[in-house]
Write a structure and sequence with these properties.
The chain is of the alpha+beta class. The protein is 54% helix and 16% strand. The protein is built from 14 helices and 9 strands. Strand 2 (89-101) and strand 3 form a beta hairpin.
Length: 393
């Protein structure tokens, strides 16, 4: 540390004509440390929840669905065309059904996939029953809220009805008896309350024309622009979890920005406290400033001296706050010591540290402390040497 930094520290930290610390400066640094730590932790929590939501959406929605826009194209020919380009796909359909359990009826959205085993693997920790119930019957995967409202457990039997497929020969809707094989919990939107999964074998018993109403679900993430270069996009529409839920993703991004702005106010208040501390320091050190000016120190030197004081307060506060915030976030990610929102597959409060966020907090905090030090620095530089030497408190 050069002489300017050493002198700035002594002028800031020690009271005139005593060996007592300047506790106001320490409290200012403590306020900045608290604000820095809180901001880092808050951004880490927001990042953690955003990552959790995006992973849950990706897990539930898959990699994307190709919906036919004109008529019903040849799905097998399209699958082969995609396969030759290295893009795997499988049939997929979605239909409204009625789920009956005893005397309770619920309108649900049935997602129809070829294989429930591969679906369970994709859902991963969202499946609450790790081992499928080995009962005989049409297998059904239901959401946790839907199961709770109908008091369903793995192994319970239900009826599936398709009112949209009533034929002229029978006024009763087609129905099948199913068995609850697994229960899943995504924890987002209405997925757990309004959705269930069945396979195509079950769906064909309810909806004879389901194959003619099917689409293609991608089983792997395609390279950007790859599908558009293969298929005529005026005949197909590609939807992904990002496009289907763009409003939710945009809202989370906006929430993060708004939270960062609001939490920066904590640091701004601490910076104002640092400003008042430095003004008091200038008033206390008028004679010392006058002596420096008399010895040839320029106004620019005095301004730099007090800007260094503000930067010292900021550096101490930022260092303590960054170590505290990053340390707590790292411990939470490693141990899950803080309880989470209660979702079955979450070990604790989700947190995710991002280097860009930490860098933004550090640079923003130091900038605020420098801005807060500008007025005291200009005030100190305006002190006249002759008046300062004869100054009496």
């Amino acid at each position: 540390m050069n002489n300017s930094w050493r002198l700035a520290g002594r002028l800031l930290m020690w009271r005139q004509d005593s060996r007592r610390l300047n506790w106001s400066a320490l409290l200012s640094a403590a306020g900045i440390a608290i604000g820095t730590a809180v901001l880092i932790l808050s951004l880490s929590v927001l990042n953690g929840f955003q990552t959790d939501v995006e992973e849950s959406l990706h897990r539930f929605e898959g990699h994307g669905v190709l919906w036919p826009l004109v008529g019903q194209p040849d799905l097998e020919a399209t699958r082969e065309l995609l396969r030759q380009a290295g893009i795997a796909s499988q049939p997929y359909a979605q239909r409204k059904l009625v789920l009956q359990s005893g005397d309770d009826y619920r309108l649900v959205t049935a997602r129809i996939v070829p294989n429930l085993d591969s679906l369970r693997r994709r859902l991963g920790p969202a499946v609450l029953t790790p081992v499928p119930y080995p009962g005989n019957g049409e297998k059904v995967l239901v959401g946790s809220l839907l199961a709770s409202k109908l008091s369903l457990y793995p192994g319970d039997r239900v009826r599936l009805l398709s009112p949209l497929d009533i034929s002229l020969s029978s006024l009763a809707p087609p129905e099948v008896e199913g068995i609850i094989e697994s229960i899943f919990e995504v924890g987002l939107l209405d997925f757990d309350e309004s959705y269930l999964f069945i396979n195509f074998a079950t769906a064909r018993r309810l909806m004879p024309r389901i194959d003619q109403m099917s689409s293609l679900a991608l089983t792997a993430e395609p390279p950007p622009g790859k599908i558009e270069s293969i298929l005529a996009m005026d005949e197909w529409q590609l939807t992904t979890w990002r496009t289907e839920h763009r409003e939710l993703i945009a809202a989370m991004e906006l929430e993060k920005i708004g939270s960062a702005i609001v939490l920066f106010l904590i640091i701004l208040v601490a910076s104002f406290n640092a400003t008042s501390t430095m003004v008091m320091t200038v008033m206390e050190k008028v004679r010392q400033i006058g002596i420096l000016r008399s010895l040839g120190a320029s106004k620019k030197y005095v301004v730099g001296l007090f800007l260094r004081q503000g930067l010292l307060v900021g550096l101490v506060g930022v260092a303590i706050g960054t170590v505290t915030g990053v340390g707590i976030a790292w411990l939470q990610m490693a141990t899950g010591m803080i309880p989470g929102p209660g979702r079955a597959y979450l070990d604790g409060l989700p947190m995710r540290l991002q280097a860009a966020d930490v860098a933004l907090v550090i640079s923003g905090t130091l900038l605020l402390t420098l801005i807060s030090a500008w007025y005291p620095a200009r005030y100190a530089a305006g002190i006249q040497p002759g008046q300062a030497v004869n100054y009496l408190k």
